[in-house]
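Subgroup meeting minutes
Present: P.N., E.W., G.H.
Scribe: E.W.

1. P.N. recapped why we're keeping a running log of single-chain structure predictions: easier to compare across weeks, and new members can see raw inputs and outputs side by side.
2. G.H. added today's entry (274 aa).
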Amino acid sequence: MSFDRIEKVIQQLESQSKSVSAEEAKQDLFHLGSRVKSKIGLRIWIDIPNNFPWRNCLTNYNNVVASTQCILKSHTGSTWRIPDWNSSFQLFNTEAKQCLEPAPSDSTTNIIQAIIKDCSEGRWKYNSLGQLSWSNGGCLTAMGAAQGNRVELHPCKDSLQQQRFEFGILDFDPAKNKTLVIPLDLKQWESRQNAYRAKELAEAKTDVLNVVNALNNIKDESKEKRRAVVFYLDKGTGFLAFLKWWILAWKLLGNLRYCWDFKKPPSKHKESPK
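Output recorded in log:
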């Protein structure tokens, strides 16, 4: 997403309030004056691992917060406002006209679920890692399709991808002739993505090198060139949809004319594509 697109959206938002000073009208939307920002209809999205397609948006589902495929049109259940833009804030759902807050799901479990309810004195904080932490402790966590798309409050953990939320807005891109969700703050978003990528590459490097070394030791009598593709998979079964998608893509591209070997890490996965 180019900065020109961001600037265009900012100009549209600035026109909504003449009382905003020039100093407040920064390039990134997070830096706009609080009076303008309180009017912005937000989408809150998250890229959930092992939940293909990964990108989901938070929505109001019968007064329970759920992560679902983003709806790229006007939809009040998926639209949020922050009426009090400060270091801590409330998340206000435009459909229910109530707040996103954590609450015990029932008396028989320890699950604290995100629901839509009357606004309390509690507040959220948003940090540079994309985590939304509650004033009484814990971070908002998207559980994914395997857990019924629930959104819960869990202990904050920097490495947990299910806690990396982004704020954005809908914008129609005429060049692509479609509506997109764009970040509120492009620079912050890019910085987070680069930091995530560098960290995950460093953590996965040892495992990947071990697999590559094992493949290099396989004797190949064929004179044809061969390629190796290594997938680093998390636990669970959600990775199957991801892997099948890539196999289908390569098949459509005509890249499956060579022999494929699938090697599973020991004791980590019991299933593989057939």
